[in-house]
Design brief:
Length: 607
């Protein structure tokens, strides 16, 4: 009895081992397909064979419909029926990986020794999977920096100086392909045939699971929209900015695109124009200690000094001094001093001094001093001094000082000072604004100007009377630390007409914890119109008011004042007030033109 169980166990175990040992490609399947897409057919096969498919979405055609019937054929037979000979199928665990079959072209070397000063390497570059020639692939030698591009046939010819070195590396690079390095023998003319392997993008990989299968009756044919995937990361943004895209040749831009990962350094270079350089076509891949550009130059960066007669274009960082007659364009960071006769563009940050005759643009932080004849533009924040003849713009934060002939703008916060001839704006102000018009969303500092608008600050319409004129109206805006006053007044007596208008500043200092009682000093200066503009009549008043808050939008104030009048009017204009100083108030005099008196004021604030 026991022997029977042992025999049965051995038999079943052997069967299981045989089944497991059978490869996925050898498994038999039967299926019938009628007008279905290739990707859907793969789902059916995956379900019937109980395994997974993995493939790159770019190699599977989805626009044709398939119909066929097979009985008891292997998975490999079915796949060979679906795909032509340019595909191969590899097993990995419970997966079948579908991919383009490599051409497996080996490097063919034909060589002939030469004693010439230069020797030539020629050849063709092909796609390893398709066999098609690769256009604009970079062929370069890192020691001499010699470089060429393949033509439309994938052909190249590169001349190298003969040397005593035994072996040199010739590198072949192309965007979306794996780099290939070929060993070459100096003093030998050589002919090469080279294949490059395309890079398989991870986001393009499709995995088909047995569980993905949908029965044919429920399949609906739809027009599938395949989202466009980015093919590469652009590391040469500087080449697309401003004049750079016009000054750099197509070949230079293609070399830079192919060789984005390759950066080397040299102590010195001289350029007449981009590409016409001691570093030739690879000038954009070299960081130099000293860079001299007669008209203009294009390099990977500078770690020392760079001078350009007209312009300098650097893909990456620049340290420590850069100057150009017209413009500098830097794709990385600038550390040190940067001068331009017209314009500077930095796509990262600046730390140091940046100055231009017209404008500066910095995409990162500006830490130091930025000077421009017309305009400064910083996409991130400024830490230090920013000064321009017309405008300054900072997209984020300013910690320091902004000086402008017309306007300063900081879209987020200013901690320091904004001083402009016309307009200052900061979303949040933690310092001082001095300008004709000052605007902020909120402020913990001071705004000094004709119009100060703090959206989350202090706003009030004031109606008042005083010893000089019975009717006065004023608009007060700013914050409680310091607000501006636009004021006007008039007399009510027809035979003693008088009109005033002017500007002032005031403050509200709380006297109790509930902030319902305030000391409210105000200083105003008003021009007085008394029938003729031929006379100067200017009155300044200092008010010492006590302000009592009666509600959220209502307060009352009153207090003593002292006034000083500067006037050169000696005769009355019929129907207008004269003498000017009010009667019955204690007065004082500094001269015939300058007099004063003590007075009072009382009023109501609304809002």
């Amino acid at each position: 009895m026991n022997s029977r169980f042992v025999f049965l166990f051995v038999f079943l175990t052997g069967m299981m081992i045989e089944v497991q040992a059978q490869s996925i490609l050898s498994r038999p399947i039967s299926l019938q397909v009628n007008r279905q897409r290739l990707d859907q057919v793969l789902e059916i096969i995956s379900n019937k064979g109980d395994f997974y498919f993995s493939y790159n979405s770019g190699i599977i055609k989805k626009d044709s419909l398939i119909s066929f019937t097979i009985n008891n054929r292997t998975v490999k037979d079915v796949l060979q029926l679906l795909f032509d000979k340019t595909y191969e199928f590899k097993e990995s665990g419970n997966y079948i990986i579908i991919r383009k079959a490599p051409i497996r072209m080996t490097v063919v070397v034909n060589k002939a020794a030469t004693e010439d000063k230069y020797y030539a390497i020629t050849g063709h570059v092909f796609d390893e999977q398709t066999g098609l020639p690769i256009i604009d692939a970079s062929i370069y030698e890192k020691t001499t920096l010699a470089a060429v591009l393949t033509n439309t046939d994938g052909y190249f010819k590169i001349r190298l100086r003969s040397s005593k070195s035994a072996i040199r590396d010739l590198t072949i690079s192309k965007t979306l392909y794996e780099d290939t390095v070929v060993k070459i023998i100096p003093k030998n003319n050589m002919e090469l045939t080279i294949t490059l392997l395309p890079i398989e993008l991870p986001q393009a990989t499709v995995t088909v699971s047995p569980n993905d299968y949908i029965t044919p009756d429920s399949i609906q044919l739809v027009n599938e929209v395949v989202p466009q995937q980015p093919f590469f990361v652009d590391t040469a943004k500087v080449e697309k900015k401003g004049l750079s895209k016009f000054l750099l040749s197509t070949n230079l831009r293609r070399q830079s695109l192919n060789l984005g990962k390759y950066i080397t350094s040299r102590p010195f270079q001289i350029s007449f124009t981009p590409g016409l350089s001691t570093h030739g076509a690879l000038s954009g891949q070299v960081v130099n200690n000293v860079s001299l550009n007669i008209l203009g130059g294009y390099t990977a960066g500078t770690n020392g000094v760079e001078l350009g007669g007209l312009f300098n274009i650097d893909k990456k960082d620049v340290s420590f001094f850069q100057a150009a007659g017209l413009f500098n364009t830097v794709g990385g960071k600038v550390k040190g001093v940067q001068f331009a006769g017209v314009h500077n563009t930095v796509l990262d940050s600046v730390r140091g001094l940046q100055a231009a005759g017209v404008s500066n643009v910095v995409k990162g932080n500006m830490d130091g001093v930025q000077l421009a004849g017309v305009h400064n533009h910083v996409t991130d924040s400024v830490f230090g001094l920013q000064a321009a003849g017309v405008t300054n713009f900072v997209q984020k934060r300013v910690k320091g000082v902004q000086l402008a002939g017309v306007a300063n703008i900081a879209l987020k916060e200013t901690e320091g000072a904004q001083i402009a001839g016309v307009l200052n704006y900061s979303h949040r102000m933690k310092g001082i604004q001095i300008g004709l018009i000052n605007i902020a969303d909120s402020s913990d500092g001071y705004s000094i100007g004709l119009i100060n608008i703090i959206f989350k600050g202090y706003h009030s319409l004031s109606l008042s009377t005083n010893e000089f004129l019975p009717v006065n109206i004023a608009f007060k805006t700013g914050n409680t630390k310091l607000y501006s006053i636009l004021i006007a007044g008039t007399s009510t007596k027809a035979e003693e007409k008088a009109y005033t208008f002017g500007y002032g500043m005031g403050s509200l200092q709380p006297l109790n914890k509930k902030k319902t009682l305030f000391f409210n000093p105000e200083l105003t200066t008003q021009s007085i119109y008394l029938g003729s503009w031929d006379y100067l009549n200017l009155m300044s008043k200092l008010h010492f008011n006590i302000n009592v808050k009666a509600g959220k939008y209502l307060s009352f104030y009153a207090g003593p004042s002292v006034a000083v009048l500067v006037s050169d009017q000696t005769v009355a204009v019929p129907g207008y007030r004269f003498p000017i100083a009010p009667t019955g108030n204690k007065g004082f005099s500094f001269s015939n033109r300058v007099t004063g008196w003590f007075g009072w004021s009382a009023g109501i604030n609304i809002f």
